[in-house]
Amino acid sequence: MLIDGTQLDLARNILSRTGYELIAATPDVWEFKAGSDELTRITDHYKARPQRCVELHFATSGPPAHMLFRDSRLERRTRHSWGGVTFPALTPADQFIAQALHIFKHLCTACTRLSWLLEYQHHVAVRDQDQAFWQEVREHAGNDAHASIAIGLATLLSFRIFGGNAPAQLAEWTSARLPAGVKLWADHYGREAILADFPGTKLYLLLQEELRGNDESWKQTKRSKLMPLRLAPRIVSVSTDDNVWKRVRSELFQLRFLLFRLRFHVVEGLHYLIEAARWKRRLAALPSYQPNLIVD
To answer: Range with the lowest mean pLDDT among 9-18, 36-45, 162-171, 181-190?
Structure first.
């Protein structure tokens, strides 16, 4: 849910009064959850569950101040009807850009769902001949380097995996103009990163380094991603009122989760170190290579 950043506290109070609790926060997203804290069995993963989740997305000025302000997309909002209910929504062009940014955000993490790429490719295919739509997308993306790279990378990878060709009016300013290092990552690691089984790989660190540069700040971040020193967050909440069996079971779940995450960090950390050496050689072989820096 996209909200006016200046009304963030009001939205939080409304959610709190309806039983939602803030469980995670980043500079531009707050995540709230409500309902049962019982773990869901894998066989019940796609069944209706008592757990509910709300994400509040809002605009900030970025570091260091992170000042809240009203997102310009709210000024362009439209009305959408579904199931007899009318509600405010982003314009179709802004929805498309947001979809690409969402995929790009996950490409810069360990795991990206293949279904997101399929949905994106279908979205592009449906609008294939809609030249006015693609022009509006380009205008709304403006000079935002994140948006053009996000659209370009999502377009390139989705069509490579599922086949077909992207509209020329979209590709010419996105996938066709990807920075050389980003294109190289897509060529060598994009498919592997997307098709990897959960919890994914650490190959995204090569992409992030290409986007952020190899300064001291990124080196510290990379070290923490390769082998985190903090314990994994708890996956089940318990209280002193819970019976002994529930508390013991929650600790067993937590221990299993810790071992699962430890194996991931060790195995994929070694995988990353091997590929990082190859990556440097591949970058060095690029003619007139210049790193593309997008500082978060």
So the answer is: 36-45
Does residue 48 fall inside a structural domain?
yes
In a domain, 60, yes or no: yes
Q: Is residue 144 part of a domain?
A: no
**What dihedral do alpha carbons 71, 147, 110, 250 form, nearest 10°?**
20
Q: 262: pLDDT confidence band, cut at 50, 70 and 90?
A: very high
**119 assigned to some structural domain:** no
b (16+ CB within 10 A) / e for 91-110: bbbbbbbbbbbebbebbbbb
Considering only CA atoms, give the Rg of the chain: 21
| Residue type (1 letter), 270 | L
Write down the pLDDT at residue 31: 92
Report the C-alpha gap between 263 and 149 in whole angstroms. Answer: 32
State which residues form the domain around 17: 1-75
**Number of separate domains in the chain:** 1
Rounded Cα distance between 190 and 92, Å, is: 27
> Alpha helices, DSSP H only, in the chain?
8-17, 92-107, 114-126, 131-141, 145-162, 168-171, 180-185, 191-195, 204-212, 216-226, 244-284
Amino acid symbol at 116: W
